[in-house]
Amino acid sequence: MRKNFGPKTWLVPMPVLIIASYDEKGTANAMNAAWGGISEYEEISICISKEHKTTQNILLSKAFTISFATENFVKECDYVGIVSAHNIPNKLEKINFTTKKSDFVNAPIINQLPMTLECKFLSYDEKTEILKGKIINISASEEILENNKISLEKLKPIIFNPINNSYYVVGKKIGDAFKEGKKIDHFK
Ligand SMILES: Cc1cc2nc3c(=O)[nH]c(=O)nc-3n(C[C@H](O)[C@H](O)[C@H](O)COP(=O)(O)O)c2cc1C
User: Fold this and answer.
1) Any domain includes 181
2) Prior bond to 114 cis, omega within 30?
3) What distance in angstroms lies between residue 164's CA and the mean position of ligand 1's atoms?
């Protein structure tokens, strides 16, 4: 038997994307977003409310970065999702997050979060509230590299469970994509 829950936004698990942008004075801000994903080759789409300071920043600066929230900074990453820069303009200072400007786009990189997508603004639809950006570069701190590749074991990204509003850390590797299926008899 299956229980029906009706329509919900439960695409499990969801990412924890920390979107960083500059405001009109050049002050860095960040917010937490779960409703995002790849929508085209090198293109990301995020459903982001027009009320957020971040949205207003991106419409002005035409750029943003997306870093992955990590196990080491769960409370900081949640904080940027519950406090708005409309009320607390120095949000990042409150959590001791520091930034540097991306070499590729007009947006801040949060030093404490080691993997970042650096994106150019493509479009924002006020009706659907969908923001699209082109990924111009991906950067990662050396401490999360292994054999010059990004190691998820070292990054320790967290994921969002919308069913009970909780965070989980990504667990251990359990297989190789595009290879596990070849173990099925059909391929032998
Ligand atoms: C787990 C989590 C997920 C969130 N996902 C989204 C989202 O996908 N889209 C959105 O517009 N807001 C989302 N929010 C809310 C914003 O992060 C929040 O309103 C934030 O304070 C906006 O900050 P700003 O006004 O400084 O830009 C999320 C918050 C949390 C805690």
Assistant:
1) yes
2) no
3) 16
Token duo for residue 134: 């082109």
Average pLDDT over every residue of 159-168: 98
Average pLDDT, the chain: 97
- Distance from residue 122's CA to the centre of ligand 1 (Å): 20
Pocket test residue of 31, 59, 129 for ligand 1, highest count of atoms within 8 A of CB? 31
Cα separation of 41 and 33, whole Å? 21
CATH number, domain containing residue 100:
2.30.110.10
Q: How crowded is residue 124: how many other Cβ atoms within 10 Å of its Cβ?
A: 17
Is residue 1 in some structural domain? no
Residues in contact with 93: Cβ distance below 8 Å, sequence separation at least 6, in sequence order = none
Q: Which residues contact 76 (CB under 8 A, 6 or more apart)?
A: 95, 96, 97, 112
Residue 8 belongs to some domain of the structure: no
pLDDT score recorded for residue 84: 98
Number of structural domains found in the chain: 1
Range of the domain at 103: 14-187
- Residue (of 25, 71, 31) closest to 51 by Cα position: 31
Compute, in angstroms, the gap from residue 14 CA to the centroid of ligand 1.
13
